[in-house]
């Protein structure tokens, strides 16, 4: 029984992290539209941001979170934001360098992987 609840909890954690990543990408898309003249307006990031934040709130109300998930989901939010920023700057090289954004994404992804247990040694 505890294994079933652990699988449900793991699925809920992954859902939270993916929604935080989507919210970060959409937030940066709206910020890029407001600050960069090369980026045109689209209603879809606004719709996706509202829906992802609403789903995050519903998931927060529905199931308890473990102690590491709030920090890891914040890191996923920043991965989405900095990742989208690096993507936009790769499309428009005259708007600046994307080196720092890529380094931040890589460091945060390593930290997320460590916190999620992807780098743990298997005790066999």
Automatic annotation (TrEMBL):
The keyword Membrane applies. The chain crosses the membrane at residues 16-33, 69-90, 96-113. It comes from the Bacteria. Keywords: Membrane, Transmembrane, Transmembrane helix. Coiled coil: none annotated. NCBIfam families: PRK11056.1. This is YijD family membrane protein. It comes from Vibrio paucivorans.
């Amino acid at each position: 029984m505890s294994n079933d609840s652990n699988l449900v909890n793991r699925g809920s954690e992954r859902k939270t992290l993916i929604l935080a990543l989507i919210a970060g990408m959409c937030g940066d898309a709206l910020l890029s539209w407001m600050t960069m003249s090369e980026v045109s307006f689209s209603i879809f990031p606004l719709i996706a941001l509202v829906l992802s934040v609403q789903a995050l709130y519903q998931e927060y109300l529905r199931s308890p979170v473990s102690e590491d998930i709030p920090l890891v989901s914040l890191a996923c939010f920043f991965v989405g934001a900095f990742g989208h920023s690096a993507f936009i700057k790769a499309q428009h090289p005259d708007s600046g360098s994307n080196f720092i954004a890529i380094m931040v994404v890589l460091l945060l992804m390593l930290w997320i992987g460590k916190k999620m247990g992807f780098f743990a040694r298997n005790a066999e």
